[in-house]
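Appendix B: a complete holo record

For completeness, this appendix reproduces one full record from the ligand-bound portion of the collection. The bound molecule is adenosine-5'-triphosphate. The inputs are the chain sequence and the ligand SMILES; the output is the full three-dimensional arrangement of the complex, encoded as structure tokens. No fields have been trimmed.
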Amino acid sequence: MENLVSLKKVSKQYGKKAVVDQVDLTISAGQIVGLVGPNGAGKTTCLQSLLGLTDYDGEIDVLGFEPKSQRTAMLEQVAYIADVAVLPKWITANQLLSYMESIHPKFSREKAESFLAKTNIGLTSKVGQLSKGMVVQLHLALILAIDAQVLVLDEPTLGLDLLTRRQFYSHLLEEFYTEEKCILITTHQIEEIEHILTDVAFIQDGKIVLAESTEHIKERFKLVAVSPENESQASSLKPLTSNRLMGITTMLFDNADSSALSGVGKVSTPSLADIFVGVMAKEVY
Ligand SMILES: Nc1ncnc2c1ncn2[C@@H]1O[C@H](COP(=O)(O)OP(=O)(O)OP(=O)(O)O)[C@@H](O)[C@H]1O
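The structure of the chain with adenosine-5'-triphosphate bound, as generated:
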């Protein structure tokens, strides 16, 4: 697989604090990577570094460009939705399309219009007259109409209702994603994107604490509902976390022997959210 994005030992300090700390990450064509971490973990700073929006130490390569020194050329091939994305209230959808057409060589007005035709946004609608969800849809129409190989999304569905969030991700897969492209996405709502992710990177205190394909991660971690008589035996297998609810103890294991696990209870595959909580707990305690 062709590498589209790579970060090598990337760090960023604010004062004495390293908010991004020696981050290594590569993203290849066809990958949809979730960068997941608690508030203040360094997700946005990582994205800003790879978009050349902030200075950093270390090496970043995006489609052969160095973001710090070749930002303008790089951004012709990279599309980006920021969590603080703001469009001016007075502008109409039509004016926005014309503006994008005039500044971006890879923007297709036809694509944007066909996307907007599936929404309630008219070409004469002003941004100020749209709901929050509609503004995100308008933004998405602009982004999806750019023939970019790399798409970077920072909390793209923040503040949207469940239906609009689902719609956002299905549009993303249908209208943008192909095997030649990659998507890097940060979100707190991991349950909602786990079905579309090919890979996940967990970040805490600026450090990547786990980076794996979702396929491999689900083979590696197991959840076991342990019956009371097997609790001490299960504990000796060193679970990452242990939770008791209505008399049943559920333990999360990382790389434990599968026959030993099936000997102490009912084994199932955890969700990415379960794994995230387990890995973060291990890093904290
Ligand atoms: N301009 C800045 N000056 C000083 N500190 C900053 C600046 N920008 C970010 N930080 C700090 O860097 C750390 C990482 O912030 P960042 O926004 O990257 O986190 P995040 O993982 O995106 O968080 P969230 O999920 O809350 O959006 C935080 O401790 C934040 O306070």
